Amino acid sequence: MPDIVMVGEGMIELSRADAAGGWRLAHGGDTLNTAIHLARLGDRVRYLTAIGDDPFSAGLRADWAAEGINTALTLTEPNASPGLYAIATDDAGERTFTYWRSDSAARRVFGAPGIAAAVEQAASADLLGFSLISLAILPDEGRNALLALAERVRANGGGVAFDGNYRPRLWRDAAEARSWRDRAVATCSIGLPTAEDEALIGDADYAAAIAARWRSLGAGEVVVKLGARGALVDGEIVPPPARLTPRDTSGAGDAFNAGYLHARLSGTAPADAALAGHRLAGWVVMRPGAIPGRDDGAAYDG
Questions:
Q1: Would residue 254 show up in a list of annotated catalytic residues for this protein?
Q2: What is the Cα–Cα distance from 27 to 160, expressed in whole angstroms?
Q3: Which helix (H) or strand (E) holds 6?
Q4: Are 246 and 285 within 8 A, CB to CB?
Q5: Strand pairing of 84-89 and 44-51?
Q6: What is the pLDDT of residues 241-254, one digit of tens each?
Q7: Whole-prediction pTM value?
């Protein structure tokens, strides 16, 4: 079974629990969402991040372990706490986020106690996964350390998956984000851009140009996510198997990533792996929250 290490920030998630205005407490974060889906799919996953020494952090660690994630690389940053975000969704299921994460423990992960040993362990992974958000939350020295880790994984014969999730509020400007994105793309063997993010960051938003640009920067295979239209794979658009009316689109791209990566690690061809990603994303968007609880319709089998 491949050894997967995901890197990023796991946060406390608040979402509406009912029409009366109550709130539901859960967890989320782009690479964490992908890690949980991979673990549910049966993969061996470790999550490299930092959380605090507070009760909420202890709860996150326990919840992630209960999902099947190995938390040996989840470090503790004393006197810090995890980030928090709240989700609001409109009638079409589109979501907006409000964040409280400016001093979260995850921002200090590459200076946290135990990071040297954690990096040594992560460097031997069969697949390292991270995103532009993983880079955005870090100071420059942390960003450089993460990219150096990705290069070590590739040098050791492993793969690197990179998602170009762009959140403008996490960057000084788009030019800074593009610079770090380009450096990250150069380290990756699997690129997972989204057309909407590429347009927002200031580049062309049509799929073929995105794929060509990422390949020119050094990415191996590139899958361009196109929302409800599907994904561009090997020059062809692979549509979702069914048209849906989403309830909540939170975490859809993260679920697609997990379905795709799991299938590719299992030897599935890229187009069929995209269908696996669509199925998992489709299950997610029909339920509330970025990581819905398992149910009879869960797309974790077959």
A1: yes
A2: 25
A3: strand 3-7
A4: yes
A5: unpaired
A6: 998 988 878 889 99
A7: 0.93
